[in-house]
Amino acid sequence: MKCPACGREVSDPVNFCPYCGARLHLNQEATTVMPLVDEPTVADELTPDEIRAIEALPANSALLIVVRGPGQGARYLLKEDQVIAGRHPDNEVFLDDVTVSRHHAIFGRVDDHWTVSDASSLNGTYVNRALISAPVQLRTGDEVQIGKFRLMFFTGSLGNR
Hints:
The protein is mainly β and 161 residues long. 7% of the residues lie in helices and 30% in strands. The chain has two helices and eleven strands. The strands form two sheets. Strands 2-1-11-10-7-8 form a six-stranded antiparallel β-sheet, covered by helices on one side. It has a five-stranded mixed β-sheet with strand order 4-3-5-6-9, with no helix packed on it. A hairpin with a 6-residue loop joins strand 1 and strand 2. It is elongated, with a radius of gyration of 23 Å.
């Protein structure tokens, strides 16, 4: 068989040309399957120290724990009505990585609940792996992704889930 792109003879039964990388069987449809990633829940991975920190949260506060990515295990206490997360060192939640904008996301306390909104970041902010475009109310156990950082949100005790 000859490669339709480079014209070289290919004798092995392969789908792509070993010389130029072009697809050899242009008439065939290709289906790609991505396996489902079965990850344990983060609550199962919390250390006893992290559990104690969550149970000891002051009233009207929340806690972010980095569960995946750079700085895994870092904790950030949210106690002000507005907390900015980003790459700028003056942010209350300092996430030092190029995938994070200087002022990436804003955590806000409204009455008795917390929200997160994207601050027009380059890579977006995700809650439970969904890209957000407006403020989203957070619940204990929600995952917030900012760049490479995956942070778990907690408020109150673990029994409030």
